[in-house]
Design brief:
The complex is a heterotrimer. Chain A is mainly β. Chain A has one helix at 23-29; strands at residues 5-10, 13-18, 35-36, 42-43, 56-59, 62-66, 77-79. In chain A, the strands form two sheets. Chain A has a five-stranded mixed beta sheet with strand order 2-1-7-5-6, with helices on one face. In chain A, a hairpin with a 2-residue loop joins β5 and β6. Chain B is an alpha/beta fold. Chain B is built from 14 helices and 22 strands. In chain B, the strands form six sheets. In chain B, strands 1, 2, 3, 4, 5, 6 and 19 form a seven-stranded mixed beta sheet that branches. Chain B has a five-stranded parallel beta sheet with strand order 8-15-9-10-11, with helices on one face. Chain B has a three-stranded antiparallel beta sheet with strand order 12-13-14, with no helix packed on it. In chain B, α3 (130-138) packs parallel to α4 and α8 (295-310) runs antiparallel to α10 (321-337). The two termini of chain B are 30 Å apart. Chain C folds into two domains: 3-46 and 149-211 and 313-369, FAD/NAD(P)-binding domain (3-Layer(bba) Sandwich), CATH 3.50.50.60; 86-143 and 212-309, D-Amino Acid Oxidase, Chain A, domain 2 (2-Layer Sandwich), CATH 3.30.9. In chain C, strands 1, 2, 8, 9, 10, 11, 17 and 18 form an eight-stranded mixed beta sheet that branches. In chain C, strands 5-6-4-13-14-15-12-16 form an eight-stranded mixed beta sheet. The chains are: A mainly beta, B alpha/beta, C alpha/beta. Chains in contact: A-B, A-C, B-C.
């Protein structure tokens, strides 16, 4: 069991996750979809390995960040379309 | 401020999974400056993905990875190759940096990805790939007490079901689209593959108590904003199962995009290689899944052969041929067992989204006779996944063949498209 | 092999061929369109889809202005996937010299009834906040539009088909002769007249026309809604399009309805292969970043190339093909194929059925080239 945790904010809500957690997982723990599709469907990660682009969210102001490939870091601001 | 770096290698390996690791280790043993460039956070690729918990790596994986560390191989993790501006040079980008990588010899070990087939409701959050869900659990997704239906095709399903169960998930069923007859034949033929029997027996133990259905596949995923239930077809009858996740993948597709960009001949979806794992491009080798889906052992031995061949040790490489041939037989067995049945082509309904990046439904695609026509008229395949999800799906559904590959072979920052040609500092520790 | 007979055989199902098919079919003629690949698969697929009024010459103005109005008239009938939008163009001036050009252009357009508005540096920055500081200003042309060309071509072809036109895809025409086209599968299609609308490949099919391929590159980004509001073109574009022999790049960006940014443009001579040229790409991207630095950090999803059909005097060839009795040309549109496709089709049909064209056709007649040669 990891002893270290880190806190990120998903759509303004703080989420505490073990160090080594990806942002995509933090978004899932926050109960949010990662993005909204071009016709308005909620979407979450599909491939888990960075090729499907369904996990894109805005991370620290950078749009289209592939969250399944990024580790949570302290005080990260994550915004999904929701 | 992004940093620009340059490094030269005698042997550059693209891909940090088993094949890439084996190639780099063997190449480094023979001298010369060797590097691995890999887009993931840590070495291991997909199949040896590390994770949050300490137990993540198998002893075999740990052994190989520690050899990488001992061998003074330059490891560039979190860097994604997107372009070959001229032969002998690859451009890779990371979050904060961009790399110009020059090589004398190149080993492409770009691995494989899951094949996703569309069916109604497949775009709901919590419908994921099988390997996809496992990757997310390894990346911290809580799965204890969750109900997961595992479906699709391929040995990955069993491995994933066992893994998830070990981490506390409840697996109501594993649905394999191949028939019992094929699965039985697969098990029987495993006799010829001792390593696989050992794995198979362990797997059987891990799967005790998990219902397995053959000739079975998902026909609809249900839920409002998130998955709530799955309807599967089993024995000609449909059953609806409440669940939290549907881990669904239909075997694997080779990542041939970078090999194609570099000019390697691709045949039937695989990179064409000779017995020394050489592609049709001089000094470019390919090892592992892109030459044929065959699992860890085949990837390792192909990687070793490529690493030896790339450093001019063909005779040593030849000694590994018998081992490779044994594992190639397994690869052929995989191919035959888990070939996709025709019924899966009727899974999508007219309004099922096929291209997830651009939300193009099946009905719009059916109007067109080729990938190119569909792409131009509907934008299918023009999104950021560059057809990696919808390409294999439409190839299976409509027998469309994909376009030629252009740079960037993966989306890259606009400014990085212009990086080649600028003067950038050389990294120390370059080729001897 | 069954011989098919038509009144008009059109070679090329790009935007120009499609517009011609539509215009001929509207006049009740029996039309067939032949293409070696898909509808709108050549330059039509590669281009920006910018519908723009140009002032390079009176002839260029007349055709682009005429054609732009035709697009505006057609707008209500265009389906959603054609993505017709009217963001307008801003011609961007980087310095005082280019501002003088802005004022010249304003006079030119105003005298010819085109609505324009001069912007100073502050107004330009307000209109497009992501442009770098320090630019001098620009000229806004609000009537300019953008659309998605492959779907526009398909719309025109479909409308022609609804009026009885036929479409033959996957047949590569290898020879055009009097009243007949032959394709590589041995098939022959006969027509009272043949129209060569084969774009960059037109010179391969009819003898004696001077069309050179002019390669271009484009980059498209992921979606960044609101980043860009108008099509932006640097005034140096004109210097680039003017040059007949030098490779060049220019700042030219377009907001697509999807929110994606289309980044261009480049022009190359003598390049025959369609592979991405790293030097041109790098130069083009750097030029774009000089005007809009924030483009640099955007995700580039695709890069592609295309071939424009360029003529020596930068005007298209629309009319009877010299040396033939029943072959016509509708080609050589360089970077204005989308814009002038509708106007091209109209004045071509007018010449064929002998109705009065709405603009003078002399500047576009293919025979002009012959005349020039004779006088040289």
């Amino acid at each position: 069991m990891p002893s270290e945790f880190t806190v990120v904010r998903v759509n303004g809500v703080s989420v505490s996750v073990p160090v080594g957690t990806t942002i995509a997982v933090a978004i899932a723990i926050a109960g949010q979809p990662c993005r909204t599709s071009v016709t308005g469907e909620p979407r979450g990660p599909l491939c888990g390995m960075g090729i499907c682009f369904e996990c894109r969210a805005v991370v620290n102001g950078i749009p289209h960040s592939r969250t399944c490939q990024l580790l949570c870091e302290p005080d990260m601001e994550v915004r999904t379309d929701a | 401020m992004r940093s620009y770096s340059r490094e030269r290698f005698d042997v550059l390996v693209v891909g940090g999974g088993p094949a890439g690791i084996a190639a780099a280790v063997r190449a480094a043993e023979r001298g010369g400056h060797v590097g691995i460039v890999d887009e993931n956070i840590a070495l291991g690729g997909q199949i040896w993905r590390g994770g949050i918990s300490v137990e993540s790596h198998s002893s075999e994986a740990s052994s190989w990875i520690s050899q990488v560390k001992k061998a003074d191989i330059s490891v560039l993790s979190g860097k994604r190759v997107f372009h070959q501006p001229e032969p002998g040079t690859l451009m890779a980008e990371g979050l904060d940096d961009i790399w110009q990588l020059r090589y004398r010899n190149l080993v492409l070990a770009t691995g494989a990805r899951e094949r996703f087939l569309p069916f109604p409701g497949w775009t709901l959050p919590n419908v994921t790939g099988a390997g996809g869900l496992q990757a997310m659990v390894k990346s911290g997704l809580p799965i204890r007490g969750k109900r997961v239906v595992v479906a699709g095709s391929g040995p990955l399903l069993f491995a994933v079901a066992a893994y998830l169960r070990k981490h506390g998930a409840e697996i109501p069923i594993v649905c394999e689209q191949a028939s019992w007859k094929k699965l039985a034949w697969f098990s029987m033929t495993l006799v010829r593959h001792p390593v696989k029997i050992g794995q198979g027996l362990q797997l059987r133990k891990d799967l005790v108590g998990i219902p397995l259905a053959a000739s079975s596949w998902p026909i609809m995923a249900h839920g409002q904003r998130v998955l709530e239930a799955v309807t599967i077809l089993r024995g000609g009858k449909s059953e609806t199962i409440k669940c939290d996740y549907l881990a669904c993948g239909f075997h694997l597709v080779a990542n041939t995009e970078l090999p194609a960009l570099v000019g390697c001949r691709i045949r039937n979806g695989y990179v064409q290689v000779n017995e020394l794992q050489q592609t049709t491009v001089d000094k470019v080798y390919c090892a592992g899944e892109p030459t044929g889906i065959g699992g860890i052992e085949l990837s390792l031995v192909e990687g070793e052969i490529a690493g030896l061949a790339a450093t001019g040790h063909a005779s040593e490489a030849q000694r590994l041929y018998p081992k490779r041939e044994r594992f190639r037989r397994f690869a052929r067995l995989l191919d035959n067992t888990f070939s996709l049945r025709a019924e899966l082509r009727s899974l999508p309904s007219p309004d099922t989204v096929i291209c997830r990046c651009e939300d193009v439904p099946c009905s719009r695609l059916r109007e067109h006779r080729s990938w190119r026509a569909a792409k131009l008229q509907t934008r299918c395949g023009m999104g950021p996944c560059q057809g990696r999800v919808c390409g294999p799906a439409t190839q299976f559904l409509f027998q469309w063949n994909p376009d030629s590959v252009r740079p960037p072979v993966f989306p890259a920052r606009v400014e990085d498209l212009a990086a080649y040609g600028e003067s950038i500092p050389e990294v120390t520790g370059e080729a001897k | 092999m069954k011989k098919e007979t038509y009144e008009v055989v059109i070679v090329g199902a790009g935007i120009v061929g499609a517009a011609c098919a539509d215009a001929f079919a509207e006049r009740g003629l029996r039309v067939v369109v032949v293409d070696r690949d898909v509808v709108g698969g050549g330059a039509t697929a590669a281009g920006m889809g910018h519908i723009v009024v140009m002032d390079d010459s009176e002839a260029q103005f007349a055709l682009t202005h005429y054609s732009q109005r035709l697009w505006q008239d057609l707008r209500p009938e265009l389906p959603d996937d054609v993505e017709y939008e009217q963001p307008g163009t801003i011609w961007v001036a980087a310095d005082d010299e280019e501002m003088a050009e802005v004022r010249r252009k304003r006079e030119y357009y105003r005298n010819r009834g085109v609505a324009v508005q001069v912007m100073d540096a502050r107004e330009l920055k307000q209109a497009e906040p992501n442009l770098r500081d320090g630019l001098a200003g620009g000229l806004l042309v609000p009537g300019d539009a953008v659309l998605y060309p492959p779907c526009a071509a398909r719309f025109l072809i479909t409308r022609a088909q609804q009026r009885g036109a036929k479409l033959r895809l996957g047949a590569c025409v290898t020879q055009i002769s009097e009243g007949c086209v032959r394709s590589n599968d041995g098939q022959e299609i006969n027509g009272d007249i043949v129209v060569n609308a084969a774009g960059a490949n037109a010179a391969e099919l009819t003898a004696g026309i001077d069309i050179k391929k002019r390669k271009g590159h484009l980059v498209i980004t992921d979606r960044y809604p609101g980043f860009l509001r108008h099509q932006l073109v640097e005034l140096g574009y004109l210097k680039s399009a003017h040059s007949v022999s030098r490779d060049s790049v220019a700042f030219n960006v377009q907001p697509r309805r999807t929110g994606q940014i289309l980044i261009g443009s480049s022009r190359q001579y003598g390049a025959e292969h369609k592979e991405v040229d790293q030097t041109m790409l790098a130069n083009m991207v750097r030029r774009a970043q000089e005007y809009m630095p924030a483009l640099g950090t955007m995700s580039a999803v695709r890069v592609w190339t295309g071939f424009r059909a360029a003529t020596p005097d930068k005007l298209p060839l629309i009319g009877p093909c010299p040396g033939y009795k029943s072959v016509y040309l509708a080609t050589g549109h360089e970077g204005l194929g989308i814009t002038t496709s509708l106007g091209t089709a109209r004045i071509l049909v007018d010449q064929v059925v002998d109705s009065k064209p709405e603009i003078a056709v002399e500047p576009y007649l293919p025979s002009r080239a012959v005349k020039e040669f004779v006088h040289a």
